[in-house]
Amino acid sequence: MDVEAAKMIGAGIATLALAGVGIGLGNIFGSFLSGALRNPSAAPKVFGNLLLGFALTEALGIFALLIAILLLFVV
Amino acid sequence: MAGPLEQFKITPYAEMEVAGVDASFTNSSLWMVIVVTSLTVFLVGGMRKSALVPGRWQAMVEMAYEFVANMVKENVGREGKQYFPFIFTLFMFVLGGNLAGMLPYSFTITSHIIVTLALALVVFAGVTLLGFMKHGAGFLKLFVPSGVPVPLYLLIVPVEVLSYFTRPISLSVRLFANMMAGHIMLKVFAGFVVSLGAAGILGAGAAVLPFAFNIFLVGLELLVAFLQAYVFAILSCIYLHDALHPAH
């Protein structure tokens, strides 16, 4: 196979990581909502943790983007 | 039209070389100077006429101080107080760099891995040295979690050591990749607006969509700029906590 084509396919495959990130982000916000609806008075206390979890999970998706960019432009 | 990656280009303003190392004053250096200067003006200026009842400016400075002070207190504990200046400097510098990158025509210093890796390595080296200075060889207990059956050590200890040494990489890549990806996204959508707008009256009408989305993205990027500075500082706090209390 042509190396150029293989790079493009690799970059495309790297986007599959978004599936995992989607599950993770859905879990975080879903859990937060169900917890917050059960006990609304405790919700503001964990909002910081929610944002932290969001940022940490989102970063994983961006790692995948980084790999795609590295494949396309650097390798 | 400039490509979306053009914004990360480093252009030297004054060529310099120190002991064979390229130490030119670049646009990155210029923006670091701008960030540090404006942070100093913000903090010193706000507290110059410190009043018991703070004015608007002083309240902003105090909010920044209290935000980081609480973060250090909650994540490191009482003995973390003496490391507060370091965490505060780290947080304000990263936040300043991220926010300065949101200005049009500016340069995002934190979108380059060399900058974030240097910051992360300072944290990593400092925390490791601190752990050994405080606990000596007892710091190595960090790699041996308590309550684990002895035969499992063979598996756990290498994993713990590996995860310890990947900390500076994950810390720096998280920040740099977030900033880079966000700014690429902004420029890609800005590119859609320009190329649609050039495609006649129908295209100009459709260009409203990516333009509106770009405004939403700017808001998102402001959130990310703050969040990533917060994550960087809070992870440094957690690493500091590990160094001060290695037996977990």
Structure write-up:
The complex is a heterodimer of chains A (75) and B (248). Chain A is mainly α. Chain A has one domain (3-74): F1FO ATP Synthase, CATH 1.20.20.10. Chain A is 88% helix and 0% strand. Chain A contains 3 helices and no strands. Chain A is elongated. The mean pLDDT of chain A is 88. Chain B is built from 8 helices and 4 strands. With 248 residues, chain B is mostly helical. In chain B, strand 2 and strand 3 form a beta hairpin. In chain B, the strands form 2 sheets. Chain B has a two-stranded antiparallel sheet with strand order 1-4. In chain B, strands 2-3 form a two-stranded antiparallel ribbon. Chain B has one domain (6-244). Chain B starts with 11 loop residues before the first strand and ends with a helix. Chain B is globular and about 70 Å long. Chain B has helices at 27-46, 56-75, 84-100, 113-135, 153-165, 167-197, 200-206, 208-244, and strands at 12-14, 17-18, 21-22, 25-26. The A-B interface holds A 51-52, 54-56, 58-59, 62-63, 65-66, 73 and B 5, 173-174, 177-178, 180-181, 224, 227-228, 230-231, 234.
Keywords:
heterodimer; A: 75 residues; mainly alpha; F1FO ATP Synthase; B: 248 residues; two-stranded antiparallel sheet; 8 helices; 4 strands; 68% helix
Q: Strand order across the biggest sheet of chain B?
A: 1-4
Question: What is the residue-mean pLDDT of chain A, rounded to a whole number?
Answer: 88
Shape designation of chain A: elongated
Q: The CATH topology of chain A, please? A: F1FO ATP Synthase
Structural class of chain B: mainly alpha
Number of helices of chain B: 8
In the CATH hierarchy, what is the class of chain A? Mainly Alpha
Distance between the termini of chain B: 55 Å
Instruction: Quickly give the CATH architecture of chain A.
Output: Up-down Bundle
* CA-based shape of chain B: globular
Low-confidence stretches of chain A: none
Largest sheet of chain A: none
Note the run of SSEs of chain A as H and E: HHH
The structural domain count of chain B equals 1
Which ranges of chain B are low-confidence, i.e. pLDDT below 50, for 5 or more consecutive residues?
none
Number of helices of chain A: 3
Order of helix and strand elements from N to C terminus of chain B? EEEEHHHHHHHH
Greatest contact pair?
A: A-B, 12 and 13 residues
Radius of gyration of chain A: 17 Å
Report the strand count of chain B.
4
CATH superfamily of chain A: F1F0 ATP synthase subunit C
